[in-house]
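hi! just following up on the protien thing from before. the input was this:
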Amino acid sequence: MSVLCILMTPTFMNLRESIVCREAARLIVSTLRVARARAIATNAEHKVEFESANRRYRILQGDRAHDSVDWDTVIQDWALLPAGINLHANVLAIHLNTNGTANGGTVNIQNSERATKYRVVVAPTGRIRVK
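and the predicted 3d structure came back as:
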């Protein structure tokens, strides 16, 4: 029985890590969709900022419908990814416009070895999906 437990431990750990990565991707998608919906509803730009080094992200609201200069309104404070899960974004922030479009970008959800498990893609059209 103990041999079976030893053999199953790596499989269980990989499964757990995959579930945690998937949940992190789902939360980032949800955050992006909230920011997009708020931008449309409030007629004010929103952006989701990413800090890859600190494994966190947040929502900010701009002061205008476009070309905002003041981003001091925090809608969602920093959300931290679970231990062992990293993110790498190809942009510092994804801007969500009042017409539903975005600047586009990709956020990679990575495991502890920094291997990409899930990719959150935001198209310039505003479509948000997980690959």
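Strands lie at 46-51, 56-61, 73-80, 86-89, 93-96, 105-110, 116-122, 128-130.
The chain is about 30% helix and 35% strand.
cheers
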